[in-house]
Every structure is written in C-alpha cells, then in structure tokens.
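Annual report, structural modelling task.

Input specification for the 2-acetamido-2-deoxy-beta-D-glucopyranose complex:
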Amino acid sequence: MLFRSFLAAVLLAGSACAQTSTDCNPLNKTCPGDGALGTNYTIYLNQTLDDQLWTVTNTLTYSGDHADFSIKKALDSPTMTSSFYIFFGRLEVVARASPGRGIVSSIVLESDDLDEIDWEWLGGDPKHVQTNYFGKGNRTMGNRGQTLPGPDATAGFHNYTYDWTQDRLQWWMDDKLIRTVKYEDALDGKNYPQTPCRVKIGNWPAGDPKHMPKGTVEWAGGEVEWDKGPFTMSVKQVYVKDYSSGQEYTYGDKTGSYKSIKTVR
Ligand SMILES: *[C@@H]1O[C@H](CO)[C@@H](O)[C@H](O)[C@H]1NC(C)=O
Ligand SMILES: *[C@@H]1O[C@H](CO)[C@@H](O)[C@H](O)[C@H]1NC(C)=O
Ligand SMILES: *[C@@H]1O[C@H](CO)[C@@H](O)[C@H](O)[C@H]1NC(C)=O
Ligand SMILES: *[C@@H]1O[C@H](CO)[C@@H](O)[C@H](O)[C@H]1NC(C)=O
Ligand SMILES: *[C@@H]1O[C@H](CO)[C@@H](O)[C@H](O)[C@H]1NC(C)=O
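The model returned the following structure:
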C-alpha cells in the first residue's frame, strides 16, 4: 500500500501503534509493514507528545522544559514509544536518568525481529552508563554489553546520541564518541542491529523481586527501595532522523538482513 505521508500511514494502519515486537516477528510470519519516519524531526518535551507519533505507557508529567517519567509504585513503567520506525538513523536525546537502586532508565531502538540498541542507567550506579546491542533477539551472554564511565547521569541533563548505519553503530555522550561497533564485529553481522527500529524511552523498576526474575533484580543492582520514591527520569528534547526515506518498510524474507528490507515509496 502506498501512503502519502507518514501520518496517513499511521492513521490507516491503525494497528501500528498497538503492535509490539511480540505480536508479530517477521522472522516467523508475514507481518504488517512498519510506518517509516522517512525524515528528521525534533520534539521538545515542554509540551504534550503527539499521540499519532508516540504511544505513552503510564503517564508523563510535563514540568517546564521537560517531561518526567516517574515511578511511584510497583509495575509503573512510564515509557514513550514511537509509532514510526527508522531504518538506520540518528537519535539524540537530552535526558536525566532516574536515581534509585533497582531503577533502570533507558533509551532504546528496537525492531520487530528484536534487533536492539540500548543506553541504560542503573539508578544505584549513576556514574556509569551501559551500552548494548542485540541482533534478532539473541540475548545469550557475549561481549556485546559495555559499561562505561560518565558524569553523574542522575544529577543533570546530558546528550545521548546513537548514530546507526549499515556499517557501524556509534554511541555519543555529550559530543564525545564513546563506542563504535562495526557490522563485522557483531558476529560477522549476525548480531548487528539492521532492521527498522522504533524509539523507546522509559523508566523501569527492574529491581522488583515480586515481578522480576532474580537475575534481572541482580543486574539492576538490587531491590527497589520503594520508600525512597518516587523515582524520576526526565527528558527535555529528542531529535530523530531516519536515514531512509520511504513511507513504509517491509521484510522481504525471513533472514532479518538489512538487504531483505523493502522500502515502500
Ligand atoms: C519462531 O517459531 C519457532 C517455532 O514455532 C519458535 O521456536 C521460535 O522461538 C520463533 N522465533 C521467533 C524469533 O519468534
Ligand atoms: C530535516 O528535514 C527537513 C525537511 O523536513 C530538511 O529540510 C532538512 O534538511 C533535514 N535536516 C537534516 C539534518 O537532515
Ligand atoms: C518549547 O521549547 C522550544 C525550544 O526551546 C521552543 O521553541 C517552544 O516555543 C517551546 N514550546 C512551548 C509550548 O513552550
Ligand atoms: C548468539 O550470539 C552468541 C554470541 O553472543 C553466539 O555465540 C551465538 O552463535 C549466537 N547465536 C545465533 C543463533 O546466532
Ligand atoms: C548531541 O550530541 C551530538 C553528537 O555530538 C550532536 O551532534 C548534537 O548536535 C547534540 N544534540 C543536542 C540536542 O545537543
């Protein structure tokens, strides 16, 4: 189907907003196409997000020049997820991570076949940032993740940027390139994120032993201390640029290779 604009695509597809990665994995099935951003745009979180472009889980509280993603109780997980996809691109987010043991703030790109690119902060260890990536949902332990030193991410706003092409993936922190992964370095490309991704920014009480497996609580740095809440991540500004320029992206086969992705113009 040909769409005249991304907005029209979202409205017509309808399900684009509701679809989550687990609804339809294109490696196993024929799935609906992904609405493409196809351009670049900046949003300032001093005003309510456009609900055609973003799905908000729980609620965001707007506060002057930023939005707060506050966890007040178990199972709160305030998140903004784009209804559009980018097929390689750039994402710049000006954010402040949430404090609190067991609380995880994240900025993620994720595709329908579970390619994933992460920035993650543990509230109990605010002077480190975790960078990670996954290909086709392969979450076996490897040397993909890297924990890097940074400024206290919970004390102020910083600019966290991905620049993602078919050849290499970069993480930039406040104008400094801190990590590069090349296609061939990711298990000869097999573990390299390479399919159209949505943007997901959120705050998550991963250290909740009632609802999360033990391993997750341990990774999160320990159990959430609920009496110290609320735990708030804040976002000021998001810039996103799609390096492709179609209206819609579809999987041409079940390989999960970028070469199989078809762009509907
Ligand atoms: C695909 O389907 C097979 C069998 O139905 C299942 O074992 C596998 O986990 C599925 N893979 C994905 C990526 O969903
Ligand atoms: C962003 O998109 C606009 C059109 O909406 C275009 O004029 C501009 O050159 C683009 N900027 C970048 C950096 O790609
Ligand atoms: C939000 O911030 C941007 C950039 O500073 C500004 O241009 C815009 O007018 C602001 N919008 C509102 C509603 O305050
Ligand atoms: C998953 O990734 C690991 C390395 O992290 C690799 O050893 C393994 O072969 C991969 N599995 C598949 C199915 O590609
Ligand atoms: C964020 O950092 C990137 C990488 O240095 C830079 O290109 C971009 O202009 C910065 N964006 C903002 C909004 O400060």
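Confidence is low (pLDDT under 50) at residues 1-21.
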